[in-house]
Amino acid sequence: PAAALDLKEAILQLKKERNAVILAHNYQTGDIQDLADYVGDSLGLAYKAKETDADVIVFCGVHFMAETAKIVNPTKTVVLPDKDAGCSLEQSCPGPELEAFLKDNAGKNYYVIAYINCSAHVKSLCDVICTSGNAVRIVEQAPAERPILFVPDANLGAWVMEQTGRKMDLWQGSCYVHVEFTRDSIQRIKDEYPDALVVAHPECTQAVRLLADEVCSTEKMIAFCKEAPADNIIVVTESGMLHRLQKEVPEKNLIPGPTDRCACADCKYMKLNTLEKLHDCLAKLEPEVVLPEDIRARAEVPLLRMLEQSQ
Ligand code: 13P
Ligand code: SF4
User: By its UniProt entry, which InterPro entries does this protein fall under (predicted)?
Assistant: First the structure.
């Protein structure tokens, strides 16, 4: 329709005027993905944010991702379409709670590894950050003599322990979307497509991961689906990934993993962003990510360590 075309044109025009770059996560709606300069997983987006020479970064994802872009770009303007685009993992580990926990357990001398799905405050309290795409590599490089505290995702943490054999103490957080997939819901779709392979995100529970042929970050799912020796692939992650995958791997039949209640799983936070809100945040340059400089500077250290260690 003409109105949608006008909106897209207006966004591209504003983008030029502002010298802005549009970064979008794999879970964004198809119309936002199609308009973005770069679409990827948290790791790819962190690298892109670090290397951009645009004046304005428009981050279509959730708040902690936009915040990550600001941490490595203190002089740039970072805006996001909806400031309420949160994340249940971020909420499961409030900065003051982690601060108190570390104080109470100071004797343990924890090496703290934070999954990137957390606030800048939590990042500022840890030694290194990881994403689902590099978690195994980052944990393998942790000092052998120190106990590890892994925050906030207990499912990702458990998967990394299985992969590396390294014991870690796990913060008990979870992603409300990925824990909706159950052994029964995935077994049922497997029974429907007996020759299908299953790829799942490591935020899924162990019961679901055990049914998967591959467990990996959203970006790595693309290579898996391309190379997998199967025509049918069940994709157990948030629904936006299917749009990206269908574009990149059109020759395969990609089947969204169902939950017990729905045929696929949406992240309500990721889906708060719309083309209209994307247009408005470019026009008004708000909502803008603003961070206290002391927190930003302290959060940048473990973030840069991650980028270095995952090369
Ligand atoms: P990826 O880093 O694999 O894209 O995952 C981000 C996320 O929010 C998963 O729920
Ligand atoms: Fe957070 Fe889960 Fe949404 Fe990813 S899918 S942004 S982990 S709530």
Answer: NadA, NadA_sf
Confidence of residue 51 (pLDDT cuts 50, 70, 90): very high
List the residue whose alpha carbon is closest to atom 1 of ligand 2.
87
Tokens of 24: 């979008």
Q: Is the CB of 101 under 6 A from ligand 2?
A: no
Single pTM value for the model: 0.96
68 lines ligand 1 (CB under 6 A): no
H helical segments located in 84-239: 88-91, 95-104, 120-124, 135-140, 154-164, 183-192, 206-209, 218-227
Three-state secondary structure call for residue 215: strand
Separation of alpha carbons 205 and 179, rounded Å? 6
- Expressed in angstroms and rounded, the spacing between residue 53 Cα and the centre of ligand 2 is 28
Mean pLDDT within 212-220: 97
- Going by C-alpha positions, the residue among 139, 122, 178 that lies closest to residue 155 is 178
Average pLDDT, the chain: 97
pLDDT of residue 55: 98
CB 251 within 8 A of CB 228: no
- The predicted pLDDT at position 2 comes to 73
Phi-psi region of 106 (alpha: psi -120 to 50; beta: other; left: phi over 0): alpha
Q: How far is 65 from 291, CA to CA, in rounded Å? A: 13
Distance 219 CA to ligand 2 centre (A): 15
Q: For a substitution probing ligand 2, which of 155, 177, 264 has the most ligand atoms within 8 Å of its CB?
A: 177
Longest dimension (CA), the chain: 64
Question: pLDDT tens, 142-181?
Answer: 999 999 999 999 999 999 999 999 999 999 999 999 999 9
